[in-house]
Amino acid sequence: MSTLARMKRNYQGLRVAVGYSATRFSTPMGRLRNFWKFRAIRRLLARCEPLDRILDIPCGTGRFTSRLPSRSTIGVDVSFQMLREAERSARGQVAFVQGDVDDLPFRSGAFDCVLTIRFLRHLPRSERVKVLGRLREVSQGGMIFDFVHRSSWKALVGRVRSSLGFRVKARERLSCDEVAEELREAGLRPVAMLPCFQFWSEKWVVLAERG
Ligand SMILES: C[S@@+](CC[C@H](N)C(=O)[O-])C[C@H]1O[C@@H](n2cnc3c(N)ncnc32)[C@H](O)[C@@H]1O
Fold this sequence. Notes:
The protein is α/β, with parallel strands linked by helices and 211 residues long.
């Protein structure tokens, strides 16, 4: 089974959907991470013109969807339960649609910007490049996504812990050059890459455009 197919399956349950934001973004640290991430996303969105139509995919429980500065925002997710949570917390003019990144129900260039957060980094490189290529099709402007940077204080702590014999969660960490290379393979080019917070952050956001 591909990682993409596993990701699709992993978020189907009601318990996962209800617990998703509660466990990750409701603690003081989680709120701060959410704030940093959204601040970095907003900085990149400020470089996108026009911004009438934004696609947030996968939108999950919609933690950013209804806060995006556009006239029309659509949140898409494959999980009905995640969408249900998103609808519950949504404010303002957003629409939520059940859909699969593998089979997008939108015409080419339908959006001014596509936002993809906490998704690509779960996929292996080959699947990531394919998904980037599919999302490129539906954006006529920018694409914003996040990645885990290779050099960060968390990576350093992980290496120290691992050298002391502690078990450390394996996660793929990339350099900016590696991200740029993946974008190139997907027919995109990087416009800007930013750390979510200044102190040697492991979470970065990227704005890319058709190359
Ligand atoms: C880690 S969550 C990220 C959600 C949101 N972007 C955020 O930052 O909170 C991953 C989401 O991807 C969705 N998903 C997994 N496979 C998908 C697919 N093939 N198409 C659309 N959504 C998918 C899951 O249902 C889940 O809501």
